[in-house]
Amino acid sequence: MSEKELKESFGRFGKITSAVIMRKEDGTSKGFGFVNVERHEDAMKAVAAIHEKAIGKEQKIVWCSRAQKKSERETELRNRFKHIKMERIKQFSGINLYIKNLEDDITEEQLRKEFSVFGSIRSLKIMTDEKNNSKGFGFICFDSTDEAQRAIAEMNNRPLQGTNKPLYVAFHEPKEIRRQKLAQEQLQRKQNPRPNMLQAVYPPPGYSYPSNAGPPQYIYPPQLVRQQPSRGWTYPPPPTHLPYPPPTQPPATRSQVRPQASGLSRSRPKPPQSVRRPNGNEILSLEQLEQYSFEQQKILLGEKLYPLIMKKQPERAGKITGMLLDSGWGTEELFSLIEDEQKLNLKIEDAMAVLSNH
User: What is the pLDDT of residues 234-277, one digit of tens each?
Assistant: First the structure.
């Protein structure tokens, strides 16, 4: 198309002050151009009449709109893409499942066979790397929310037939939703500070506990560092040993022990048996964690997560570890971060995004 044809196509709507087709160095058209109309009303009529219509001798369909700056176009495209993305999230909310802990030899056909009993499957995908090796997780999309909920209830924490690893099955949450939840949790903690709560302190990697010592408990808030009020508690560098809280009641002296009446048994009560604590070099398992209280489980998980996070974010490892432990996730979810490096990296990215915004 030439500038003359361009002027003829737009000239019927008003006076044209200039028309140009952008060209390459060799003179060939770049496929776009500009037309300047004298009156704004005439320009609006031309846009309404010519947009997505065929013009010129070649009768080629053209796209026509007001000329925009690059920043305006980028903002408009960004908002349009964000809107489309949110619509897709709403469309698949409640029916798209995230599945992990898949063994390397599990195929999509096997997974479809196991999950098809819960309903009609729209799509199923096991994620793979460049060499087509399984990454150990995937996605399944059902037709309805009821079908997806049945699959979660029946298959979460259960292994597939012929495998040993229990699956993790839950509704898929996009990264934006996870970041929003993490930001809301951080905001709630700042609005409801709990300075009197006891916090766990993590020993240096490789630290081994004495065989005759029970599992450490907590240290008091004076050991914590309050760097910035808006960012919550920050964990200090790990100490060389963990302090223990003072006993709640001093041991009775010999003079305080009353003699028992004659004829009664003098059997001494047996001291409670403490569960052996795994040292820093041992592999921690869910079975071992179940032997401790929930708060002690968080300490053990923190000792494993802290050195892993140190490799990625050494300056904020203590802060991120505290955020993960205080996130409200269950023991199994926190334990999965130790085994799943990719999931841990995602959580670290989400935490860094929250910290950078505050």
Answer: 444 444 344 444 444 444 444 444 444 444 344 444 444 444 45
Q: Which of 48-52, 55-59, 68-72 has the lowest mean pLDDT?
A: 55-59
Rounded Cα–Cα distance for residues 314 and 125 (Å): 35
CA dist 298 and 201 (Å) reads 10
Q: Write out pLDDT tens, residues 271-285.
A: 444 444 555 555 567
d(CA 32, CA 235): 58
**Cα–Cα–Cα angle for 255, 257, 259, nearest 5°?**
110
Numbered ranges of CATH 3.30.70.330 in the chain: 3-62, 91-172
Q: What are the strands, taking DSSP E only, across the chain? A: 16-23, 29-37, 53-55, 60-62, 96-100, 121-128, 134-142, 168-171
Dmax (CA) for the chain in angstroms is 123
Q: Which CATH superfamily is domain 3-62 in?
A: RRM (RNA recognition motif) domain (3.30.70.330)
- CATH architecture, domain defined by 91-172: 2-Layer Sandwich (3.30)
Ramachandran bin of 162, using left for φ above 0, alpha for ψ from -120 to 50, beta for the remaining angles: left
Q: Where in the chain is the domain with CATH 1.10.1900.10?
A: 173-193+228-238+282-358
Please determine, for residue 201, whether its predicted confidence score (pLDDT) is greater than 80: no
pTM over 0.85: no
Residue 97: its pLDDT value, please? 92
